[in-house]
Design a protein that fits this description.
By secondary structure, the chain is an all-alpha fold. Helices cover 63% and strands 0% of the residues. The relative contact order is 0.13. The chain starts with a helix and ends with a helix. It is globular, with a radius of gyration of 20 Å. The chain has 2 domains: 111 residues, Hypothetical protein, domain 2 (Endonuclease III, domain 1, Orthogonal Bundle); 75 residues, Endonuclease Iii, domain 2. The chain is built from 12 helices and no strands. Bound molecules: iron/sulfur cluster. Iron/sulfur cluster binds next to α9 and α12. The site of iron/sulfur cluster has 14 residues, from α9 and α12.
């Protein structure tokens, strides 16, 4: 196959994948709606909450977040507190020493760069620049950045959590071996822009209720006609 043929074939795959991505979006919106799940928390709260959510479930994360907010009135107080004290109040989230360090490191970097603990500069920053700004903070990856931008600023980004990653791989929208980090870039490229704000909510719901990690309910799934995993089962 020469270079031109290779390019044409790559283009064909891209067009097919984009068309399929649009169909997946349309079907998800048809069944689950277009509403965006927006927590409307201030961005620093969202950032800290996302650090707390690493490797734990929502219940433990929320317990740790609420405990932290009860003990400290401001993020400035959290920044100035001894790390061991932060760790004590976030124990329920697990990996508390590491998370306490990550929270204080992120707060310190923001304070140094902005001059205060405030992320409102992300509101008007160009989207790619805002992602870069956040992911350049120590310990902040693409998922955390996407969560802050989507949930606090309603920017059109797709956080790729374990459900989004699993469902999109099974559907064949991304390859089996694509990392979660790379999935952020690929999925935002292939998904229609208008669909992205509701996509996280819809894919997470589908992953929890239907396309579960163990025993996915393929026979009840309204996406089975678009699914590579389902085709392989037959
Ligand atoms: S058909 Fe099965 S594997 Fe495919 S999306 Fe539905 S539940 Fe998941």
């Amino acid at each position: 196959m020469n270079f031109n043929e290779l390019s044409m074939s790559a283009d064909t795959i891209t067009v097919k994948t984009r068309l399929k991505a649009k169909k997946v979006c349309d079907v998800l919106i048809h069944y689950y709606g277009k509403a965006v799940s927006v927590r409307k928390l201030p961005p620093l709260d969202e950032l800290v909450m996302t650090i707390l959510s690493q490797h734990t479930n929502d219940v433990n994360m929320l317990r740790a977040y609420e405990s932290l907010k009860e003990r400290f009135s401001t993020w400035e107080e959290v920044l100035d507190a001894p790390q061991e004290e932060i760790a004590l109040f976030i124990r329920s989230s697990g990996m508390y020493n590491l998370k306490a360090k990550r929270i204080q490191t992120a707060l310190r970097e923001i304070n140094e760069r902005v001059g205060r603990l405030d992320l409102s500069l992300l509101e008007t920053m160009e989207l790619e620049e805002a992602k870069k700004w956040l992911t350049s903070l120590h310990g902040v990856g693409p998922k955390t950045a996407a969560i802050v931008l989507l949930f606090s600023f309603e920017r059109p980004v797709l956080p790729v959590d374990t459900h989004v990653w699993r469902v999109t791989k099974r559907l064949g929208l991304i390859g089996d071996k694509v990392s979660r980090e790379k999935a952020h870039v690929l999925l935002e490229q292939i998904m229609p822009r208008s669909c992205i704000p509701s996509l996280n909510k819809n894919l997470v719901r589908h992953g929890r209720e239907v396309c579960r990690a163990q025993n996915p309910k393929c026979d009840e799934c309204f996406l089975s006609h678009l699914c590579v995993y389902y085709t392989r089962l037959k």
